[in-house]
């Protein structure tokens, strides 16, 4: 049995009836009409997958039927039946959107084969259109959940920014959902059909930052065995998200500034600038104003990216959104893991609502997924949540004791980190490059922690790099 609804338009009764019978024998839903006028009338009240129409008919011919079909539903395919003398007209009809034509006389198997291929194309087109819609809907405001005043303000600004071409700076702690906001901006903007490219600047090796972002030409450095297209070119007509933009090198910042000023980039080793139509969205979890004051980030670049700022508050500052987020993640994770219905007990919800969430929304999502995966009960209890047992017990029984214990834990971890940095700095004579490599962090992160802990090592701190 075949799927598909077909309309046969043929003014010769015997031909029309034989075609209707042939298509029905193959399992199609078929209707037959004797004129182009009647066909156009049917198109106003019905949706067809395929229209098979004679080209030469009185009053309203096959070309007019074709136009009416495409006006009613552009995805409906059309196959024309033509005599040998009108093949040139049929070829023009294909240019106008017809799928194919068959010439008289023909065998039923011939037109059935053409019809089958036309219907397969229709299915593929519908599938592509559906997937494109799914992608847009998925990223429209996916995961941006909350009705707190803080998040309503974020959503308000985001919706306005979508309609502009302005550069956007998204700030907020790690795990607050900066990339989600950036995706929402892109997929609701006029650029939604072009690429959305994401790059974490802090994850790029320092010697490859410029090459990754702007590309390079063959032979520009050791290992450049061929020309490479940069991420900015890959985001042509679309949007590029520069996550952790504060981690970019001074040389990279100069090139970013030039792009924001005149829309041009220059590949590493290239001697010719090229124009790129790409919108920048920058994101960071650090205080760029302080980075400007310290000289690590260019003031002029900061002004260029700080056109419209969207700040996403940490989860602990919008606790009223936690129940909504829990409900959202619970539904998504149950579907993902193919689990039956599960809910959280009042005690579990209370524990989640009072937890401080240092990892923000990302941590909440991970905790819900782990609880769903491991719990054997329909109701997930507080004891099953992967947060410290003492933490949620003291939350509900002794809040003051909880605060005291939490302060002790944070202080202890901070002291351990501070001592490790001091020890490494002293060991390597204050050379930050060596210390950062040993500790497995970037030099920028190390610098921030030195400032945070007000560390004064025994040796003078140095940024020198040994050759």
Question: Which characteristics define this entry?
Answer:
alpha/beta, disordered C terminus, Helicase, Ruva Protein, domain 3, 467 residues, five-stranded parallel sheet, 14 strands, 4 domains, Rossmann fold
Task: Show the helix and strand layout.
Blueprint: E1 5-9, H1 13-25, E2 29-33, H2 36-43, E3 50-54, H3 62-72, E4 77-82, H4 87-95, E5 100-103, H5 108-140, H6 149-161, E6 168-171, H7 178-187, E7 196-200, H8 209-214, H9 231-234, E8 239-243, H10 250-262, E9 264-265, E10 274-275, E11 279-284, H11 288-294, H12 299-305, E12 308-311, H13 322-336, E13 343-344, H14 346-354, H15 360-374, E14 379-380, H16 389-397, H17 399-427, H18 432-439, H19 443-453
Parallel strand pairs: 1-2, 1-3, 3-4, 4-5, 6-11, 6-12, 7-8, 8-11, 13-14
Antiparallel strand pairs: 9-10
Word description of this protein:
The protein is built from 19 helices and 14 strands. It is an alpha/beta fold. The protein folds into four domains: 5-135, Response regulator (Rossmann fold); 145-313, P-loop containing nucleotide triphosphate hydrolases (Rossmann fold), CATH 3.40.50; 319-397, Helicase, Ruva Protein, domain 3, CATH 1.10.8.60; 401-453, Arc Repressor Mutant, subunit A, CATH 1.10.10. A five-stranded parallel β-sheet has the order 2-1-3-4-5, with helices on both faces. Strands 7-8-11-6-12 form a five-stranded parallel β-sheet. A two-stranded antiparallel sheet has the order 9-10. It is elongated and about 100 Å long. The termini are far apart.
């Amino acid at each position: 049995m075949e799927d598909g609804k077909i309309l046969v338009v043929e003014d010769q009764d015997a031909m029309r009836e034989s075609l209707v019978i042939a298509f029905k024998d193959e399992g199609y839903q078929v209707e037959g009409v004797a004129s182009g006028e009647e066909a156009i009338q049917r198109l106003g009240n019905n949706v067809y997958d395929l229209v098979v129409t004679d080209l030469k008919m009185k009053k309203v011919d096959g070309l007019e039927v074709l136009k009416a079909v495409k006006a009613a539903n552009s995805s409906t395919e059309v196959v024309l039946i033509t005599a040998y003398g009108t093949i040139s007209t049929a070829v023009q009809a294909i240019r106008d959107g017809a799928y194919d034509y068959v010439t008289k006389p023909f065998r039923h198997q011939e037109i059935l084969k053409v019809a089958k291929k036309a219907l397969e194309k229709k299915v593929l087109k519908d599938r592509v259109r559906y997937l494109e819609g799914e992608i847009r809907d998925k990223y429209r405001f996916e995961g941006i959940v909350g009705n707190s005043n803080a998040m309503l303000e974020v959503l308000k600004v985001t919706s306005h920014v979508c309609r502009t071409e302005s550069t956007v700076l998204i700030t907020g702690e790690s795990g607050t959902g900066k990339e989600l906001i950036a995706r929402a901006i892109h997929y609701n903007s006029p650029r939604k059909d072009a690429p959305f490219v994401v790059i974490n600047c802090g994850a790029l090796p320092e010697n490859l930052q410029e090459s990754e972002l702007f590309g390079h030409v063959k032979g520009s450095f050791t290992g450049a065995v061929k020309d490479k297209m940069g991420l900015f070119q890959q985001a042509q007509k679309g949007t590029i998200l520069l996550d952790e933009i504060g981690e970019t090198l001074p040389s990279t910042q100069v090139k970013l500034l030039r792009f924001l000023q005149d829309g041009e980039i220059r590949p590493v080793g290239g001697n010719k600038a090229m124009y790129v139509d790409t919108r920048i969205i920058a994101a960071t979890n650090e205080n760029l104003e302080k980075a400007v004051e310290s000289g690590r980030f260019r003031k002029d670049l900061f002004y260029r990216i700080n056109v419209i700022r969207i700040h996403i508050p940490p989860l602990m500052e919008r606790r009223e959104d936690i129940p909504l987020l829990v409900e959202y993640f619970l539904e998504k994770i149950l579907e993902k893991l193919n689990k039956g219905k599960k809910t959280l007990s009042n005690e579990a919800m209370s524990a989640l609502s009072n937890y401080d969430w240092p990892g923000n929304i990302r941590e909440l999502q991970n905790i819900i997924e782990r609880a769903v995966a491991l719990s054997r009960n329909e109701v997930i209890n507080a004891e099953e949540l992967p947060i410290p047992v003492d933490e949620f017990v003291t939350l509900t029984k002794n809040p003051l004791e909880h605060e005291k214990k939490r302060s002790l834990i944070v202080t202890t971890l901070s002291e351990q980190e501070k001592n490790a940095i001091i020890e490494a700095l002293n060991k390597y004579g204050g050379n930050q490059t060596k210390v950062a490599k040993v500790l497995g962090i970037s030099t920028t992160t190390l610098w921030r922690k030195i400032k945070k802990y007000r560390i004064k090592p025994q040796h003078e701190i140095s940024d020198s790099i040994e050759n």
